[in-house]
Amino acid sequence: xxxxxxxxxxxxxxxxxxxxxxxxxxxxxxxxxxxxxxxxxxxxxxxxxxxxxxxxxxxxxxxxxxxxxxxxxxxxxxxxxxxxxxxxxxxxxxxxxxxxxxxxxxxxxxxxxxxxxxxxxxxxxxxxxxxxxxxxxxxxxxxxxxxxxxxxxxxxxxxxxxxxxxxxxxxxxxxxxxxxxxxxxxxxxxxxxxxxxxxxxxxxxxxxxxxxxxxxxxxxxxxxxxxxxxxxxxxxxxxxxxxxxxxxxxxxxxxxxxxxxxxxxxxxxxxxxxxxxxxxxxxxxxxxxxxxxxxxxxxxxxxxxxxxxxxxxxxxxxxxxxxxxxxxxxxxxxxxxxxxxxxxxxx
Length: 347
Hints:
Oligomer: single chain
Order of helices and strands: HEEEHEEEEEEEEEEEEEEEEEEEEEEEE
Number of helices: 2
CATH architecture: 7 Propeller
Distance between the termini: 28 Å
Helix content: under 10%
């Protein structure tokens, strides 16, 4: 169940080499609105698409009506979104979609998904975090830096040098905490100066960082065949480990750490889905959802309903499944999204 970017990249490259690449047909119909009727349980689903196939997309799901609207960007604009949708960030009336292989960010109107702007100049952008109304950071795979983005002019305004592949980022007050995949480290950046002020080294396969309700930083490391996975609670002020949990047994590759709406309970994948209180003294031993043969590529919990959403990539080629469970682990609905669904944004 472990998500491995490099393995998927190689797999995708082989598929491209073995299969003739066909152009994606553009929408020739008049753009039409998607089903975003007012719903406190609405969900945006980001679909990565295949590397080099230009088939990234966004799906919208209304949990009240169970209506599914596919290819929101293409339907609204008449052209495709781009290649490998890496991240999506809904910021009020604007939504930012990071396209990794296309090297750009598409800015769209949240209400109808019509294009507002395209931010260019990236090499291989990964994740987006908004600092304030005028500035954002964007992490990067190859360039040993983080981009500073001007959200008023939709341009890259500066960069911050970091050694290695930077990934997910979290903002707390005046600091951004950055995953560095190459170094298995968390960097702490002062956003007022754009300077790295502290670093914390962790174990192998650092794949998730999240803040709980007490503003403690939790980090999940998947480990590998030689090092067991670990879950850490970190004091973000001193950048020290306050508590650690070690995974044992055959399934020591945990991933996809997320929280419920109150940020009091954690959820993660370790072959199956587990739930854990932030005050727990030990890792849970009983899963809440048995995943069977699902190929998990994303996990999130709706902050209002508490429903659990799981992205199943299936074979990384056909349209993936989204599985919606109640918080007690009862399957409520399964539906198709785009190719390689990966992230959920709740609205």
